[in-house]
């Protein structure tokens, strides 16, 4: 996930607004989950359950987010065979164009099997 360097995404200090940093981190997590689950995404309830962000450096310019998912698709399927839902931990690093890590997110995605 990536946000461009745009004036309207900055705060009164001229750095990227904290809410935008969280948003790009959540989008990165969602994109990672979508890639991991593929077509299964449409048959499951998949939403952010919890999220926390650690701001490390002032964020300037375009910001990119990369997610690391703490479970494999097979692990998720196995968990869902035993329980109607699972929380999947995701770590996201946000970097600027110079490659400096400006924030880290810890997000738990809730994945549930719809009731029939």
Task: Give the total of beta strands.
Answer: 5
**Helix/strand structural class:** alpha+beta
Number of helices: 2
The main sheet orders its strands as 1-3-4-5-2
Task: Encode the helix/strand succession as letters.
Answer: EHEEHEE
Helix content: 25-40%
Radius of gyration: 16 Å
Distance between the termini: 34 Å
Q: So what's the overall shape?
A: elongated
The proportion of residues in beta strands is 35-45%
Q: What is the average of the pLDDT values? A: 95
Reported for the largest beta sheet, the result is: 5 strands, antiparallel
Low-confidence stretches: none
Structure description:
By secondary structure, the chain is α+β, with helices and mostly antiparallel strands. The chain is built from 2 helices and 5 strands; from the N terminus they run E-H-E-E-H-E-E. It has helices spanning 18-37, 73-82, and strands at residues 2-3, 45-55, 63-69, 85-96, 101-112. The chain is elongated. The mean pLDDT is 95.
Give the helix/strand layout:
Blueprint: E1 2-3, H1 18-37, E2 45-55, E3 63-69, H2 73-82, E4 85-96, E5 101-112
Antiparallel strand pairs: 1-3, 2-5, 3-4, 4-5
List keywords for this structure.
single chain, 116 residues, alpha+beta, 5-stranded antiparallel beta sheet, 2 helices, 5 strands, elongated
What is the gist of this entry?
By secondary structure, the chain is an alpha+beta fold.
